[in-house]
Design a protein that fits this description.
Elements (H helix, E strand, L loop, with lengths): L1 H11 L6 E8 L6 E7 L2 H4 L6 E6 L4 E8 L2 E10 L18 E3 L12 H4 L1 E3 L2 E7 L2
Parallel strand pairs: 1-8
Antiparallel strand pairs: 1-4, 2-3, 2-5, 5-6, 5-7
Length: about 130
């Protein structure tokens, strides 16, 4: 009987890739899409590849869900592609002209928010509401 209980416990215990991130975005417009990039390391956040990406239409509730993630630290970069051209528009000086945001609603200083401000721990289901401005 104890062996059966132990086996059932192992079957229902969370696995190494059972974490998820649910991001709800508040936008100022209902056009275009919100482009979301999820990073799992400081090195990737500062110039590498995202571990996952999503494009969420801004016409209704803007919710991005990433599932089957290993527990750990993550950070998000997002922008509202208001005109729907698939890229962040910038002015001649390279500054964004479309709204953008980072996890934890972190704010950058003369550039994107740093990893240590945007980073958040993920274990199980983790949710955040991010305001895009």
């Amino acid at each position: 009987m104890i062996a059966l209980a132990a086996a059932l416990l192992l079957l229902t215990a969370p696995g190494p890739d059972d974490a998820s991130v649910v991001l709800t975005f508040e936008t100022g417009a209902r056009t275009g899409s919100v482009m979301v990039a999820l990073y799992d390391s400081e090195a990737d956040y500062e110039g590498g590849a995202a571990v996952a990406q999503a494009m969420v239409p801004a016409s209704g509730p803007v919710v991005a869900r990433f599932e089957n993630l290993p527990a750990g630290d993550y950070a998000v970069k997002a922008f509202h592609d208001v005109d729907g051209d698939g890229q962040m528009d910038t002015n001649p000086f390279g500054l964004p002209t479309e709204p953008y945001a980072f996890s934890n609603n972190a704010v950058g200083n003369m550039g994107p928010a740093r990893w240590d401000r945007a980073r958040f721990p993920v274990s199980g289901e983790t949710a955040q509401t991010i305001v895009i401005r």
